[in-house]
Amino acid sequence: MVRPLPARGRVPAALAVLTAGLMAFHGAVPNTPGRVGSVLESFLPWLGVAVVPLFLCGLLRRAPATLVALLLPVAVWTHLFGDLLLPPDAAGPRELVVVQHNVADDNPDPAGTARALAGTGADLIALEELVPDALPVYERALAARYPHHVVRGTVGLWSRHPLSGARTVDIKPADLTGPWSRGLRAVAATPHGEVAVYVAHLPSVRIGPRGLASARRDESAGLLGRAVAAEPLDRVVLLGDLNGTADDRGLDPLTSRLGVARRGFAPSFPAGLPVVRIDQVMARSATVAHVRALPATGSDHLPVAARVALH
Fold first, then answer.
1. Which of 22, 98, 159, 283 has the fewest CB atoms within 10 Å, counting from its CB?
2. What's the pTM?
3. For residues 171 and 174, what is the distance between their CA atoms, to the nearest angstrom?
């Protein structure tokens, strides 16, 4: 005869199973109303934190069933995110180091920010929220180490290697009027061959009483995804403030075509207490081997640096 689960363990055990289910089947959570699915996916790794109070509850209530049930969310979390905790692989011979940073249009110290980024020694540096008053400051501070650069609207790319084929990438949502340019594409002639580099700043999202307002971000991601799909070069690196995590289905037009980081969490926003990484490095015919957050600058985002191994 099967004994029923003790009453004191039923609720926390059920919550453990629910947590595991939300992580494993987050794609089944509907996005209406309020883009609930995207909200869940934006903070998906943090669902693992629920294990801690449930574990303590199981101990205090002496509920073995709860402790056993907690093995399920632990296993699911490890399957989904465990690789990100592993140390990076050894650097290979065909790697680029890239830096992505939304420098913030109200950055009080653009010169200091530029010096910090130049000090990374990266091959490529992508910047967003470049305003006219600050742009000359970045150009002067980065010129010595990064003699090649291109700017389109409020996004820019600085490179140690020659750039060619620079053009604007139109990712402007249809309902916006007036000047709005947040995408560019250029070809970097690296020592390992040509790489098409895209820099983008997708529209912001907001969480309010009606949920997540992300329609413009999602539309812009779709436009960028189509541009990447049409890119004639095999090797592509995308750097940008995408205003979404790699798990957010709103970025599916990009994550379905480009690989994301294999190692490293690197939360980048907000800079004071970073909880999500919305500053992304993605690649095609290349592997984003590792990503890490860099020290804070004058921005509300942290810079992120990544190693990209070219195939």
1. 22
2. 0.93
3. 9
Pairing relation of β-strands 286-293 and 183-190? unpaired
Angle between helical axes of 7-24 and 71-81 (0-180°, round to 10): 20
Q: What is the pLDDT of residues 106-161, one digit of tens each?
A: 999 999 999 999 999 999 999 999 999 999 999 999 999 999 999 999 999 999 99
Task: Tell me 252's DSSP state.
Answer: H
The closest of 225, 204, 197 to 129, measured between CA atoms, is 204
Strands 286-293 and 304-310: antiparallel
CA angle 126, 124, 168 (to 5 degrees): 50
Q: Are 240 and 198 in contact (CB under 8 A)?
A: yes
- Rounded Cα–Cα distance for residues 254 and 59 (Å): 43
Provide the residue type at 4 as one letter.
P
Is 72 within 8 Å of 47 (Cβ atoms)?
no
The answer to whether the peptide bond before residue 33 is cis (omega within 30 degrees of 0) is yes
